[in-house]
Design brief:
It is a single chain. About 70% of the residues lie in helices and about 0% in strands. It starts with 14 loop residues before the first helix and ends with a helix.
């Protein structure tokens, strides 16, 4: 099993969040709890981003704009 490496982070949380955190989560379990909460939210963000990329790939206007941009890049490449 791969051993996890940890890094301390400093960030601020709203006071009501920290109060609830201390109320419901044991002190020794806080890092794990916060890491899992962040991990879950990151997965949601990744899925949203993948969906947006897939939709952009299907968007004809986006495809045409990308093709035009590729042509623009190719036009100026000989000058360098």
């Amino acid at each position: 099993m791969k051993q996890q490496v940890y890094k301390n982070q400093t960030f601020s949380l709203p006071i009501e969040v920290t109060q609830e955190l201390h109320c419901f989560i044991k002190r020794r379990e806080m890092s794990h709890f916060v890491a899992e909460a962040i991990r879950k939210q990151l997965e949601i963000k990744k899925k949203e981003l993948r969906k947006a990329y897939l939709m952009a790939n299907k968007d004809q206007g986006q495809i045409e704009a990308t093709d035009e941009w590729q042509g623009t890049l190719a036009d100026g490449s000989n000058e360098w």
